[in-house]
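Tutorial handout. Part one gives the primary structure; part two gives the three-dimensional structure as tokens.
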Amino acid sequence: MTEINVPTFESLKLLPGQVLHLEFDGNDSYRDRCQLVGYHRGRSIISTPTKQGVAISVKPKTAVKVRLFVNQINGACAFDSTVQHISVIPFPHLHLAIPEQLFIGEVRKSIRTRAHIATSVIIMIEGERKSMPAVIDDLSINGARLFCQQLPTDLNAEVDIVFKLVVSDIERFMRIKVTVRSIQFNEAKDAHFYGLHFVDVSDSDRIVLHAFVLSQLHII
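Part two.
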């Protein structure tokens, strides 16, 4: 990530419900997501860190590292803060100090992660839609590589792939149209590898892809 001087926390214009990842100094057992409740301009950020529904044990003035993905800037953001106030009424929540500086990392199209995701390839065979099993072993925001037995398809053909992503214990089933950009046969694995480019991905699916790839790279 690169430190930049222009954006402030307020300028991110985050909405309630924004996912935050907190890491408290001296509490390595808590590395989980919570939600932004809101913030007082120039004063504090209100968040809801709990563990199994119970407020975590943390003291005022504890240092905390905060990470999040900001869709408005298409990037990951991180900053250092401290716990200012702790409350359990009307629900467990913390007030964190507004950060003095932000660290922003733009999400590049080339960012990708290794994976092992069971996938179904939906393809037209003799006028009927058929489902064939495959595995995604490399995933990026704009495409994927999968391996399987030979598919009855050619370069630049369009097919659909269906798979499930899990981000912070939330499951999302994805169905994405792809274009076949490359086909290779791997003798050692006795399988064909297909390079795929995503086509017309919805905004909601794109956000899930961003979050999954970044979480695998430990950026958020």
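Part three, for discussion. The mean pLDDT is 83. The chain has two domains: 2-106, 112-216.
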